[in-house]
Amino acid sequence: MGNKVALVTGGLGGIGSEISRKLSSNGYTVVATTFNKEIEKSDEWIVAQKKAGYDFLVEEADVTSFEACGEMVKRVEDTVGPVEILVNCAGITRDGFLKNMDESNWDAVLSTNLDGVFNMTKSVLDFMLSRQSGRIINISSVNGQRGQFGQTNYSAAKAGMHGFTMALAQEVARKGITVNSVSPGYIATNMVMAIDEEIRNDLVSQIPMQRMGKPTEIANTVGFLASDQADYITGANIPVNGGLFTSF
Fold first, then answer.
1. What is the spatial distance between Cα 226 and Cα 60, in angstroms, rounded to a whole number?
2. Helix, strand or coil for residue 239?
3. Label partner for 85 (CA 20 to 30 A): which of 38, 79, 137, 218?
4. Strand bridging mode 57-60 / 83-88
5. Catalytically active residues, by annotation
6. What's the angle, vertex CA 32, arms to CA 26 and CA 33, rounded to 5?
7. 94-136 pLDDT per residue, tens
8. How many CB atoms lie within 10 A of CB 39?
9. In terms of Cα–Cα distance, which of 160, 169, 53, 152 is closest to 103?
10. Burial of 208 (0-12, 13-18, 19+ CB in 10 A)
11. How many Cα atoms are found within 13 Å in the side-chain-facing hemisphere of 124?
12. Residue 221 maps to which CATH number?
């Protein structure tokens, strides 16, 4: 393993796994985080990744807990090495019309998808500031830009990530740290491909490119933002959505 460390929350998921692979290929020691090693079957995931030629570490931490995130980041800094890249990829959905949405489903999505970004970023920031370098990359969503029927909680959280990204980027720009977000459209993860075919076809029909994105296409964008080639990019949101939503 190299001595450059990339920390990827939600690193065992469909998009998170590809991001972990890309950063590993780019020479980083990748630490993927999981909320529960047993539920997410992290041992099986590690074995599968090793068979594919990747050697990852897995750390357990509930991103909704500020204390847990801080303890995990310190553990990584002490035992693995300095965290140069943080990718906030952990996220959940609890879809439903707002008129039917209870407080627990609102809180669960905001706590994981938005509070989790604060908890993890705050935990790594002092280390990055002391070294005057770092990359923070937040995985948002096209629905944070355009909104989505039945996703007031998710859309609000993902839109909040954009505001967080732009504000923090200005705070740390002089400290050698960049902060950017990536907004995937509909991506062909196992979870999405399990959706009824008729519904998937309807989703694809809305996309100008007439196909879903690949997890590797998100990972490639993250890999670029993490690289020296992106030194002058900060406070930006990179849409990867096949033309589903465009803006400037």
1. 23
2. strand
3. 38
4. unpaired
5. 154
6. 155
7. 999 999 999 999 999 999 999 999 999 999 999 999 999 999 9
8. 8
9. 152
10. exposed
11. 31
12. 3.40.50.720
For residue 142, which of 226, 209, 232 has the smallest C-alpha distance? 209
Query: Which pTM value belongs to this model?
Result: 0.94
Higher-pLDDT residue of 214 and 40 is 214
- How many domains does the chain contain in total? 1
Domain that holds residue 96: 4-187+215-239
Distance CA 109, CA 222 (A): 23
CA 158 from chain centre, in angstroms, equals 11
Instruction: Tell me whether residue 202 is in a domain.
Output: no
Instruction: Report the candidate in 163, 184, 186, 188 with the shortest Cα–Cα distance to residue 238.
Output: 184
pLDDT tens digits for range 193-226: 878 889 889 989 999 999 999 999 999 999 999 9
Longest dimension (CA), the chain: 52
Contact assessment for residue 57 and residue 37, using Cβ atoms and an 8 Å cutoff: no
143 vs 156: CA distance, rounded Å: 9
**Is the separation of the CB atoms in 58 and 8 below 8 Å?**
no
> Got the DSSP string for 18-87?
HHHHHHHHTTEEEEEEES-TTTTTHHHHHHHHHHTT---EEEE--TT-HHHHHHHHHHHHHHT--EEEEE
- Cβ(32)–Cβ(219) below 8 Å: no
State which H helix or E strand residue 131 sits in. Answer: helix 116-131
Within-domain flag for 57? yes
Cα separation, 148 vs 145, whole angstroms: 9
- Residues sharing a CB contact under 8 Å with residue 92, sequence separation 6 or more, in sequence order: 108, 109, 112, 113
**Residue 61 identity:** A
